[in-house]
Amino acid sequence: MIKTKAAIAGLALAVSAVVANAGEVEVLHYWTSGGEAKSVAVLKDLLTEEGHSWKDFAVAGGAGEAAMTVLKSRAVSGNPPAAAQMKGLDIQEWADLGFLADLDGVATKAGWDELLPKVVSDIMKFEGKYVAVPVNVHRVNWLWANPAAFAKAGVKIPTTWDEMIAVGPKLKAAGIIPLAHGGQAWQDATLFEAIALGMGGSEFYNKAFVTHDDATLRSAKMVEIFKTFKATRDLIDADSPGRDWNIATSMVINGTAAMQIMGDWAKGEFTAAGKVPGTDFICAPAPQTEHQYTFNIDSFAMFGLESKDSKVAQDSLARLIMEPKFQEAFNLNKGSIPVRQGMNETPFDSCAKASMASFSSTAKTGDLVPSFAHGMATTSSALGAISDVITNFYNSDQSADEVVVKLANAVKASM
Q: What is residue 195's three-state secondary structure?
C-alpha cells in the first residue's frame, strides 16, 4: 500500500511538472489548402501530445506575401508569433534584425548538423547558430510528361534542351501543345533557371544567381541560355499568359499538352486525378539536369520569447519538426520529401524516392543548389530584378546579347 501511494504521488508530481512546463506556441503559416492543412494538423497533434498548446495563425496565400505582411506588422508592434513560416534569405534578414531565437541547444542535442546537408543547414543558421528549422524539400527542376502524348506523336521524351526544341513540331503536328506553361513571372523564372542549370552547370548557376558574379551574368554562355529560353516560346500556346501553374499541369494530365517544367508540387495534381507515376505520367529531371537538384525548402523561423514555458514549447516544436514521424507524415501529405537524411523511403512513391536519392547524392557532389526562382538563392530585391528581366525578354523581341547586359545591370542595381 505504501509503495502504491508513493507511486501515485510520484505520478502526480510528474504530471504537475508537465503541466507547469506546458506552454503555448502561436504558429504563423500559409498552408491553408486541404492537403496542406492536413499536414500542419500532424504537427499540432504531436505538440499537444507533449502537453503544450498550439495557437493557429493561418494566413491564406500560397506564396506567403500576405503572411509576411502580417508578420512585419506583429514584429514591429513587439508581438511576434513563436514561429513563422519563411524561407531563404528572409531568415537571415530577420535574424540580423535581432528577432530570432537561438535553437542551437535543440539542434546540437538532436544532431541536426549530421542530419542536414550543409547547404541547407547554412540557410537555417545566422552567425553559426540555428535560428530556423527546415520542414521539407521541394525539387524544382522536374519535367512532367504524358507518355501517351509522346507515343501519339511518335517521339521520345527529351533529355536535352535541343531535343525539346526539336520534338516541338512533331507534337504540334499530332495536335498536341508541346509545353504547358503559365505566362506568369515566377513560372517564366522557373523555366529559365532549369535551362540555366542544365546548360551552364552548377558552378555557373551558383556564380550567376547566388554570388551574382558580373562576368558570369554577361558571359557568352548566358547569351546562349537566353537564346534557348526564347526558343521555348514556340512550344507553348497562345493562351499561356496569366495561366496558373495547376491549370498548365491539368493540360498534361488530360493530354492536351505533352510536358511541363514545374516543381514537385505538380505531382499532387496528378495523384488527385488518380494518375499513377511511371504509367500515366512520367517524372524526370528537367533536360540536362539529371545529376543536379534545385531545392525550395519550407521552414519555420523561431522568434524570441519572454515566457519560459512558451520557450520550452517552442523548443519542443523545433525538435518535433525534424523527427522522423513528422517528416514522414507531413511530406506524404504535401508531395515533397523529408529534409532529414536517412529516412525510410518505403512509404513514398517512385517520384519521391528518385527525389530523395538525388537530394542525397547532389549534396555530396556540390550539385544541390538553391532555386533562385523560388526565393532560396538571393534577396527579394535581386529576385525581383532578375524575374523582371527574364519575363520581359520572354515576351518581347529583345536580343539575347541585349538582355545579358540588362540582367547584369539590374542585379547590380538591386544589391
A: helix
Please check whether residue 285 is in contact with residue 142, taking contact to mean a CB–CB distance below 8 angstroms.
Answer: yes
Q: Contact, 124 vs 132, CB < 8 A?
A: yes
**Quick count: other Cβ atoms within 10 Å of Cβ 124?**
23
pLDDT tens profile 318-366: 999 999 999 999 898 888 999 999 999 999 999 999 999 999 999 999 9
Any idea what DSSP says for residue 281?
B
What average pLDDT is seen over the chain? 92
Note the helical H segments in 232-349: 245-253, 267-272, 308-322, 324-334
The angle subtended at Cα 377 by Cα 332 and Cα 342, nearest 5°, is 35
E strands, 195-322, where? 257-261, 282-285, 293-296, 299-302
- Nearest-angstrom CA–CA distance, 90 and 265: 22
At 267-294, the pLDDT tens digits run 989 988 999 999 999 999 999 999 999 9
pLDDT in tens, 52-67: 999 999 887 656 778 8
